[in-house]
Design a protein that fits this description.
By secondary structure, this protein is α/β, with parallel strands linked by helices. The chain has three domains: 79 residues, Up-down Bundle (Butyryl-CoA Dehydrogenase, subunit A, domain 3); 49 residues, Orthogonal Bundle (Arc Repressor Mutant, subunit A); 118 residues, Response regulator (Rossmann fold, 3-Layer(aba) Sandwich). It is built from ten helices and five strands. Strands 2-1-3-4-5 form a five-stranded parallel sheet, with helices on both faces. The termini are far apart.
Length: 263
């Protein structure tokens, strides 16, 4: 088989793996390990299934090897975040596969290697866990009023508080000067031609918060050539996907170590 079809799916494998592990480095290492396992024959590509579904199954086969004690990038292991104790890896995978990647429950069951009823139970348990998230303050960086209103409503449905909506880089930076967000939802291209990525970068230099990028062109951010977001939603989006990603971002966020002051 030509590698070109596999390469076309790689950005979406990376997106999923980053959300699954909560880390760009760990997610990319997982995808790299899965591709290497396919080439070496340690993991097999099921040619009776659709290519995309088979690739996600191969990714999970590799992940299971890692969880059984085989390091993806020795001696590193997949991170165990205390915030995830309320959601098992099994529940998390079902949620991401259905809501973020758009697989059916039958496809999710195949990828996970379980029956469809088990996949449904995992998915429903994950949804209940997401609903238990603590409320936080949300900054929305979005220049399209209708989409901004949708994001406000979705965040409000989850019990979060909106500190403001910014349509430009300058507005976003100005809003966080008055109130620190606990989560940022950001478009990539803004009204005045400025960049949501650059606005987020400036905010993150002063504040340590999780960020979800929302864009119609995810492949432009998933190039592998620069630091990339762990949490990414594709436009047009479903309400369930945004809600799921908000919960995932809050679950996975690991505060950066505080720098010691130099005296």
């Amino acid at each position: 088989m030509s590698t070109e079809p596999i390469i076309r799916h790689t950005p979406y494998l990376r997106r999923y793996a980053r959300a699954l592990t909560g880390s760009q480095a760990e997610g990319d290492a997982l995808v790299q390990a899965a591709l290497e396992n396919l080439l070496s024959g340690h993991v097999h590509l099921d040619r009776s299934a659709a290519l995309r579904t088979a690739l996600f199954r191969a990714l999970h086969d590799t992940w299971r090897l890692a969880l059984n004690g085989h390091s993806i990038d020795a001696p590193r292991r997949l991170p165990a975040d205390q915030r995830l104790q309320r959601m098992t890896p099994e529940h998390r995978t079902a949620l991401l596969l259905v809501l973020m990647e758009g697989f059916s429950l039958a496809e999710t069951a195949y990828i996970l290697g379980v029956d469809e009823l088990s996949a449904r139970h995992r998915f429903e348990a994950a949804q209940r866990s997401i609903e238990g998230q603590l409320a936080t303050d949300v900054l929305i960086i979005e220049d399209e009023p209708v989409i901004a209103l949708d994001l406000q409503r979705l965040a409000d449905d989850l019990g979060h508080r909106i500190i403001g909506v910014a349509a430009t880089h300058q507005e976003a930076v100005g809003l966080v000067a008055n109130r620190t967000p606990g989560l940022v939802l950001a478009d990539v291209r803004l009204a005045d031609g400025s960049s949501g990525v650059e606005a987020v970068g400036e905010i993150l230099r002063s504040y340590d918060v999780p960020v979800i990028f929302i864009t119609a062109y995810p492949e432009r951010l998933l190039t592998g050539s620069r630091p990339e977001p762990a949490f990414l939603v594709t436009k047009p989006f479903s309400e369930e996907t945004v809600k799921a990603m908000i919960g995932q971002a809050l679950f996975f966020h690991q505060p950066r170590p505080r720098l010691k002051a130099v005296v």
